[in-house]
Amino acid sequence: MHNSIAEVFADIKQFLPRPKDESHPLQATSFKFKALLTCFVIELPLMVLLMAGISLIQQTGFLDLEEHSGNEMMRLIPLWLIFIGGVIIIPFIEELIFRLLLKYKRNYILQVFYDKNSKGAVEVDGLYAPNWWVANYRWIFYAFAAMFAFVHIFNFGISWKVLLLTPILVSPQFVLALFLGYLRVRHGFIWSFFLHALHNLLFIGIASLAIDAAVPKETVKNEDYQLVIEEIPLSTQETKTQQVFLDSLNYGNYPGELLLSELKGIPRYDLRIEDKKIKDSRFNIRMKTYKEGLSPDSIALVTFLETYNLELVLDTVASSSYYMRIADTSLFESVVAPLQDGEVTGSFSRRPFQLEIDSQLVSNTAKIMSGFYRTEIVYDSDKDGFLSGEFPRSFNAAKRKLRSEYGLEFI
Q1: 33-63 pLDDT per residue, tens
Q2: Which of helix, strand or coil describes residue 159?
Q3: Distance between CA atoms of 104 and 354, rounded to whole angstroms?
Q4: Residue 66: what pLDDT?
Q5: Cβ neighbours of residue 203 under 8 Å, at least 6 residues apart?
Q6: Neighbours of 217 (CB within 10 A)
Q7: Cβ distance 173 to 148 under 8 Å?
Q8: What is the C-alpha separation between 178 and 172, in angstroms, rounded?
Q9: Separation between Cα atoms, residue 79 and residue 100, nearest integer Å
Q10: Beta strands in 163-224 (DSSP E)
Q11: What integer pLDDT is reported at residue 318 of this predicted model?
Q12: pTM of the predicted protein model
């Protein structure tokens, strides 16, 4: 076993610097299987090293590789279909395109146009091939490897930076192509396909472990509050959760844009988020305050923006602004639940024709209404409590209801 692997390794060292269209003299299946495993063991650490180098470039901030098409597929396509396509179908098609023709014996296209009786024909695997095929085979081999690597640049979002760094970004695919080409030429087409499939199986398997996994991005713990921000880069779940308490909040699996709009208290369509990573990712935010007077949503919003170096930009400007104040204290106190110790869950729902509020702080209700009615509303009172109710789409009608049923007025 050891001698066989050493022989394969020596054959690879001899073949790759000067490739020749020659099959390996040993054609036993067991030997080919050892060649497959040897190539896999050699190319895998090389791939990891090259990808680590690419990751270092990304960490410098010069290049953002979050728009890789693989990430998009992992979000949108069922995992079982990704495995079938990525491990069987795509490798087979790519091997047909980039490796099948490396053997003149299977290069039917070239055979159609070449006259075997032409002067200078050279025998290759029992067939007569043109002399230039044999003389320039090394460059033919490398050209197919380079083409295979280059097509993978389209996995990235194309920009001048990506094009500038193309040789580096596709270097892992070029290395893989060299070993696939070796197996195809020396041991047969099916073995290059096996290596390609095994390679993709490993990397897709690793990527699948990241699906719905929360990555900690920021943790703050001090005497005033505790805050945790987690990013879910590859979320396949549509369900999101929201809990708003008097002294804490909890958002689970929340889309980035929607999360920012909730924390800011404005409509999602009034935000302009240019960071694709924020748009595509989902987030968990958990916060608990230990000091009175702290606003969990304001602290969470500021920390989130600082963590991702974002600036909140509004697409529209509110047409007007209002202060919401208590006009009838006795009415207000009779319908608004007083503040109490312990956590009270609040929620709200935006419907096409009405806004439903359930046990939300009046101060938070003002923010929610700001988003729903596209108007800046500021609660101007030290007295707070929990409000519930259904409010119509018409802002004027909602103002009348708040005045007559809750004792709140707008100025």
Answers
A1: 999 999 999 999 999 999 999 888 877 777 7
A2: coil
A3: 71
A4: 59
A5: none
A6: 17
A7: yes
A8: 10
A9: 29
A10: 215-221
A11: 45
A12: 0.62
Q: Which residues pair with 283 in a beta bridge?
A: 231, 254
Whether 272 contacts 313, CB under 8 Å:
yes
**For residue 218, what pLDDT is reported?**
92
Q: 198, exposed or middle or buried, with CB in 10 Å at 0-12, 13-18, 19+? A: middle
106, amino acid identity: R
Q: Which helix (H) or strand (E) holds 71?
A: helix 69-76
For residues 381 and 362, give the distance between their C-alpha atoms in angstroms, rounded to a whole number: 10
Which pLDDT score is estimated for 314?
63
Distances (CA, A) of 229 to 34, 216, 287, 305: 47, 6, 9, 11
Strand-by-strand arrangement of the 321-326 sheet: 376-379, 321-326, 408-410
> For strand 321-326 and strand 376-379, is the pairing parallel, antiparallel, or unpaired?
parallel
212: left (phi over 0), alpha (psi -120 to 50) or beta: left
Element (H, E) at 164: helix 160-164
> What pLDDT was estimated at residue 352?
62
The H or E element containing residue 266 is none
Q: How far is CA 58 from CA 161, 320, 390, in A?
A: 11, 43, 49
Half-sphere exposure of 220 toward its Cβ, with a 13 Å CA cutoff?
Answer: 20
Q: 210, 187, 211, 183: which is closest to 196 by C-alpha?
A: 183
pLDDT < 50 regions, the chain: 317-318
List Cα–Cα distances, 55 to 62, 145, 213, in angstroms: 11, 23, 20
End-to-end distance of the chain based on CA atoms, in angstroms?
A: 87
Question: For position 275, what pLDDT does the model report?
Answer: 75
SS3 356: strand
Q: Of 159, 156, 104, nearest to 130 (Cα)?
A: 104
Which DSSP string do the residues of 311-346 spell out, in sequence order? ---BSS--S-EEEEEES-HHHHHHHSEEP-SS---B
- The whole-angstrom separation of Cα 160 and Cα 155 is 15
